[in-house]
Design brief:
- With about 100 residues, the chain is mostly helical.
- The chain contains 3 helices and no strands.
- The protein folds into 2 domains: about 1-55, no CATH class; about 55-100.
Length: about 100
């Protein structure tokens, strides 16, 4: 997951540099007043999103498999803990029933 995030940030950074160059050489219009920085960030996000979607498909699939495995492992651990608690409660009830 960390690798996917770094790759996605790298694509964004590359797109931001390209957008900055296009704005600097006035190929793309500048934003209004002080909004130039925000304009470049938004344009870079708009360009990098579809590129990331296509280029990082394999990495995104690998990351989702890892996340799904982690969730399944956590669910199994939670269920094991829950069953241990149930067994402890049942034993306590049996022990209390024998002494009464």
């Amino acid at each position: 997951m960390f690798r996917y995030t770094l790759m996605r940030l790298g694509i964004f950074a590359g797109c931001f540099v390209v957008v900055w160059g296009l704005v600097y050489f006035r190929v793309v219009p500048r934003g209004f007043g002080a909004s130039n920085g925000m304009w470049m960030v938004l344009l870079a996000l708009l360009v990098s999103a579809p590129i990331s979607f296509v280029v990082l498909r394999g990495e995104r699939d690998r990351a989702s498999v890892k996340v799904a495995q982690r969730v399944d492992r956590m669910k199994a651990n939670l269920e094991a803990n829950r069953s241990q608690e149930d067994e402890a409660v049942d034993e306590a009830a049996r022990a209390q029933g024998q002494t009464s």
